[in-house]
Amino acid sequence: MSDTIRPIRVVHYVPTMFGRRFSGQTRWLYTLLSGWQDPDVTLDLWGSELKPVNMNSGNREFQLPSGRNLWSEPEALGRLGLLRQAARVLATLVSRREDFDIVHFHNPWWGELFSVPVLHLLGKRAVYTTSLFGSDDPSAIARSRGALGLALYRRFDGIVALSPALAQECSSHRIANVMYLPNFLAIPELETGRSESLRSAVRARLRIPAEDPVLLFIGSAIRRKGFDVLVESYIRVAQKQPGARLIVVGAKDKTAVASFDVEYVAEQRRKLEAAHVSDRVVWTGMVTDAHELVGYYSAADIFVFPTRREGLGNVLVEAAAAGLPAVVTNLPGITDAVVTDGQNGFLVPPDDAGAVAGAVEQLTSNPSLREKMGAEARTRAQMFEFEPYCHRLKDFYLHVMRTST
User: What is the pTM of this model?
Assistant: First the structure.
């Protein structure tokens, strides 16, 4: 680009509670902003009190702040709070209209949706990332926001879809400029695979013998993630294989996530206690330190993720990079974008604890199969490299700028 032509300025706009509700997506976004170094496009982050230290420097190594308050505003805004937030979004974009060319939104609230026609009046572009099937895709917006919400959604100049299913969903609603672009691996330390020294250190700290098979689950202990299916399947596995352990990484009480369902998790704990296997389950709580996460991936043998609904699942990409075969719910056009049944893991029917347990038992009883699938998983993870992602995202922004509003 000539020195006389300024770069395209892209602002990523996130709601105030984004960091607390979507810890994995927050890490991914911070990695993108810190690691970005293309001089033709600059990336900024608005709507947050925190920014990556090395923004646009090419340095993807950073740590998310510890604790729950990535953003200070309470999670429960209420109707009046949502209206105020919508007004604040619009006011910010209008007052700072000379500071950007494209706004890339990550949440379809009214403030973001109503911003699209306003941005067009200002001669700006608006992009959105749809990331969770059944939550922020066009059909879900139509259900939650009605015809007006869907009409506003259709006015985005471009949609980034994290999975083929989300891209197809957008196309079925006559949204033309849609790009399927799955998230890249957001933990650079995993690009070289898992660490054997970390494996030994973490297992020693958790008092897990080297020969015991370890199942790993990363995510909130909620129904959407299939945590109850995980518990039921683990009980079946543990009763047949007393050495099998389970590590659960994610929020375990309201101190981490305000919407945490205490009774739901208490019920799962009661099931584990009744089956006399609760002492074989490690609950880590929320983990924001990337190196600590790598430790848990390294300590594990199998990644188990019986989720009911996803957009892609960043943890599937991370587990693949760590060389872990995955047992995951078959969500067509979503989880099968990362896991191919019988190659780098097993795809199982939704809500089928028996199928989950059976797949896990195949892997725990067959080390050579685990090794073969783990190697294939490492190969598959190469599909989610950082540099190719950045090139494709830049091309998308260029295409959006050429598109008339």
Answer: 0.92
